[in-house]
């Protein structure tokens, strides 16, 4: 039986893992796919390193376009990353009638609509399980396993770097800066960790999940993104005292007015399973109207976990390569002509609970002034924590947890509270989600 020939673009950590797992489990993969799958050409700028990894088993080049233009290649695996040359290579491969497997979440979140349209016009597939949550098969679960459901919401820990940092801050009481340095030393954080710690990486992944869950186009530019750089160790401690843990969550939710699409630090009740996901692990919670709550947990990065997802896509494409394009699973779960034109809600229209920390002068009447503002803005208080001031200290922290309210109401209340002469500095605001299981 004729093997499926794969061209691999980039043989870094994930590429090397893909090559290794594909070779190690060749027999199992053949039995599942029905045809041998072999990497026959690799493109990488570091030719010497590439040859050390693949040996004499396949051709090696430093010209990625030579791979996508090779008529012998059936499937192109793109593991270069970024949205520049990767976009050109993927589109060229598709226009050449080749299927594409990619782990590139930024590329899909920004250019996915164009890429899927091109694939559809050429009758080829783009598979991208590895683009979200590494080895966790969340794309397949959403697109196929939960296809009977009207998805209500998704909340995910989908960036291992930030989850490691928050776990260490909580366990050891350290500052963000100290834990970031440790994460970099251990290899969990890049030398430039901006995309991770500012929430951009999570927003790329959430954009993909939201599109599949609700049948909408990719709309990364409309996502609300807030990272963890301003998070204080004191807020993690106070949250713990109130029965919550802080996680950087990607949240997308169906509302009557549109879709929420947001990434930010979030208080989650400590009894929730997702609140207990520690270290660099990922977890995605999906709530469907028929199935209720489901949770997907595992390694969200790394050579072999991500390679597991890449190879699963290779097997899927191999199985379906000869199928009528009209009978394949659509890229975004819904038929391309049935995507919905639902608005992405601005953050001001989002409804959630809030954690508010205020630094106030310790004197009578302060609480009355603050709670009057909450009442004026129709904000109900769920819980309150007041730290006893140290002897001789004239200021103290007060923490409020609110019931669900609209963000614009919270913004107005915070502005009025900060204007009170008894309130010192800015109010620290974090969002709160119950996430029922």
Could you say which overall geometry the principal axes of the C-alpha atoms support? elongated
Please provide the count of β strands: 17
Number of helices: 15
CATH architecture level-2 label of the largest domain: 3-Layer(aba) Sandwich
Terminus-to-terminus distance = 47 Å
Largest sheet features? 11 strands, mixed
Which range does the strand content fall in?
15-25%
Structural class: alpha/beta
Nearest-integer average pLDDT: 95
Q: Looking at CATH, which topology of the largest domain would you report?
A: Rossmann fold
Would you state the CATH class of the largest domain? Alpha Beta
* Helix coverage percent: 25-40%
In CATH, the homologous superfamily of the largest domain goes by the name NAD(P)-binding Rossmann-like Domain
> How many distinct folded domains?
3
- Low-confidence spans: pLDDT under 50, at least 5 residues? none
Gyration radius, rounded:
24 Å
Description of the molecule:
This protein is an alpha/beta fold. Helix content is 37%, strand content 24%. The protein has 3 domains: 4-135 and 303-338, 3-Layer(aba) Sandwich (Rossmann fold); 138-298, Dihydrodipicolinate Reductase, domain 2 (2-Layer Sandwich), CATH 3.30.360; 348-432, Alpha-Beta Plaits (2-Layer Sandwich). Strands 7, 8, 9, 10, 11, 12, 13, 14, 15, 16 and 17 form an 11-stranded mixed β-sheet that branches. It is built from 15 helices and 17 strands.
């Amino acid at each position: 039986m004729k093997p499926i020939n794969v061209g691999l673009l980039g043989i870094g950590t994930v590429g090397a893992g893909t090559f290794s797992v594909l070779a190690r489990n060749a027999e199992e993969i053949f039995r599942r796919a029905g045809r041998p799958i072999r990497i026959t050409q690799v493109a990488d700028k570091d030719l010497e390193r590439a040859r050390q990894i693949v040996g004499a088993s396949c051709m090696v080049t430093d010209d990625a376009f030579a791979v996508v233009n090779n008529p012998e290649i059936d499937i192109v695996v793109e593991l270069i990353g970024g949205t520049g040359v990767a976009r050109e290579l993927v589109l060229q491969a598709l226009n050449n009638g080749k299927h594409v497997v990619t782990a590139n979440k930024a590329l899909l979140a920004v250019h996915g609509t164009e890429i899927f349209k091109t694939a559809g016009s050429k009758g080829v597939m783009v598979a991208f399980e590895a683009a979200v949550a590494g080895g966790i098969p969340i794309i397949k679960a959403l697109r196929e396993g939960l296809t009977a459901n009207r998805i209500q919401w998704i909340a995910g820990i989908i960036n291992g770097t930030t989850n490691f940092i928050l776990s260490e801050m909580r366990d050891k009481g350290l500052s963000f800066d100290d834990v970031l340095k440790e994460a970099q030393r251990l290899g969990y954080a890049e030398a430039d960790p901006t995309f991770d710690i500012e929430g951009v990486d999570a927003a790329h992944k959430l954009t993909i999940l939201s599109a599949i869950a609700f049948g909408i186009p990719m709309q990364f530019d409309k996502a609300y993104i807030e990272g963890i750089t301003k998070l204080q160790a004191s807020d993690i401690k106070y949250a713990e005292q109130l029965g919550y843990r802080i996680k950087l969550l990607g949240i997308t939710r169906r509302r009557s007015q549109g879709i929420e699409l947001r990434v930010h630090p979030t208080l989650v009740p400590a009894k929730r399973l997702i609140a207990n996901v520690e270290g660099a692990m990922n977890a995605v919670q999906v709530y469907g109207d028929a199935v209720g709550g489901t949770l997907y947990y595992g390694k969200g990065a790394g050579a072999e976990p991500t390679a597991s997802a890449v190879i699963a896509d290779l097997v899927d494409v191999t199985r379906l390569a000869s199928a009528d394009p009209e009978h394949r699973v659509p890229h975004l779960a819904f038929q391309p002509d049935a995507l919905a034109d639902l608005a992405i809600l601005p953050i001001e229209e989002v409804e959630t609970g809030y954690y508010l920390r205020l630094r106030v002068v310790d004197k009578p009447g302060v609480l009355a002034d603050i709670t009057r503002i909450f009442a004026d803005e129709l904000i109900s208080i769920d819980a309150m924590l007041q730290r006893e001031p140290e002897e001789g200290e004239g200021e103290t922290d007060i923490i409020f947890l609110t019931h669900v309210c609209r963000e614009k109401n919270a913004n107005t209340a915070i502005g009025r509270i900060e204007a009170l002469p008894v309130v010192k500095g800015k109010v620290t605001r974090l969002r709160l989600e119950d996430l029922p299981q």
